[in-house]
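Anyone up for a design puzzle?
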């Protein structure tokens, strides 16, 4: 028969059971608190991911320094061609019709003067350049929603439509030279080009007038004179573009003297040629066909290839943090399309991590976001 337990022994065993239950309850509460804490850390990482941005990595893409150098050269070449185009246009319309169409500052002043002197015909001829210029900017805003530069923005649509308006202006100039109608289509094209603003490393580049660029050069030189050389690299960008505007003016003055308003055919070639060069560069950069780059109606996102995941780490897929952006620039709404929610939840539900990992570590690589050092929940 089973020996009977004396009351004293039974009391001791009950105390042990009670103590064990209390310890288990306390441990469960501690684990629950730890889980809540880790969950909060992961949620904070989710929010932080909006600022920890991994750049897009196309297949076989060169290193970051080489990519940035390539983009920088592309901006210098493309920007200089556009300033040549604007300087050429301005010289043609100024010498042939007395209008500056690549910018509207002087036009505002002239319309005010004509209004005060009662020259109604001249007032309206100059005044209508302004809304047509604004209409061009309006069209570009519809076609290109974001201004931060990266190789793949849908500038091709602006080049195609702008070339069309320049061609129309050339035809009006050739067949109706006594009218100012051609200048209004030129103004549309210039408005489109000027609205194709590029934000690059904190610099705003406009290509149809030199006022802002001359101001920026003066600011940079002032900083250099004080021994601050951080922004001196911008001179490599601004000076070629300013020289391009001047050379465009020289070419335009000679062309209009020899050919009249039909000289605008050269603008069609310059602007359209710049668009073709951009499409060619993008097709090479993204490894797609030239026609796809030329006719694409959307910004092109780089293709990525899968990468290995280090042991004990969680890799958030590149497609979830992919965004086209300028690596040194401020954040853009278009560039903040980042979704980490599912990956973080998957991590919480899985038994990742190892014993002894005590701190949350975030590694921001070129092609993925790694979260390591999280204890198992």
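Challenge accepted. My sequence:
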């Amino acid at each position: 028969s089973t020996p009977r337990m004396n009351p004293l022994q039974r009391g001791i065993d009950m105390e042990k059971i009670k103590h064990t239950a209390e310890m288990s309850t306390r441990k469960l509460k501690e684990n629950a608190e730890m889980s809540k804490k880790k969950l909060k850390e992961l949620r904070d990482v989710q929010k932080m991911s909006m600022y920890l941005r991994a750049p897009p990595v196309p297949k076989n893409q060169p290193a970051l320094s080489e990519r940035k150098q390539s983009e920088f050269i592309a901006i210098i070449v493309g920007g200089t061609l556009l300033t040549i185009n604007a300087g050429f246009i301005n010289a043609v319309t100024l010498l042939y019709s007395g209008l500056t169409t690549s910018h509207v500052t002087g036009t505002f002043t002239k319309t005010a003067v004509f209004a005060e002197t009662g020259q109604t015909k001249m007032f309206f001829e100059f005044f209508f350049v302004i809304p047509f210029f604004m209409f061009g900017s309006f069209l570009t805003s519809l076609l290109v929603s974001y201004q931060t530069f990266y190789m793949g923005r849908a500038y091709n649509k602006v080049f195609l439509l702008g070339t069309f308006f320049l061609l129309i202006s050339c035809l009006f100039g050739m067949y109706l030279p006594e009218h100012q109608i051609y200048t209004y289509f030129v103004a549309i094209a210039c408005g489109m080009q000027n609205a194709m603003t590029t934000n690059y490393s904190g610099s705003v580049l406009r290509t149809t007038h030199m006022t802002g660029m001359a101001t920026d050069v003066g600011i940079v030189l002032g900083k250099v004179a004080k021994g601050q050389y951080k922004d001196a690299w911008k001179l490599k960008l601004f000076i070629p573009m300013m020289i391009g505007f001047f050379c465009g003016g020289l070419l335009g003055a000679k062309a209009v003297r020899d050919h009249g308003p039909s000289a605008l055919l050269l603008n069609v070639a310059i602007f359209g040629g710049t668009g073709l060069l951009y499409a060619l560069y993008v097709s090479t950069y993204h490894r797609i066909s030239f026609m796809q780059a030329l006719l694409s109606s959307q910004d092109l996102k780089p293709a990525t290839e899968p990468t290995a995941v280090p042991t004990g780490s969680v890799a958030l897929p590149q497609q979830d943090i992919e965004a086209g952006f300028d690596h040194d620039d401020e954040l853009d709404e278009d560039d903040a399309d980042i979704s980490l929610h599912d990956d973080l939840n998957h991590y919480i539900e899985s038994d990742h991590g190892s014993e002894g990992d005590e701190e949350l570590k975030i590694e921001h690589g070129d092609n993925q976001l790694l979260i390591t050092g999280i204890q198992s929940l």
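A detail worth pointing out: The chain is about 60% helix and 5% strand.
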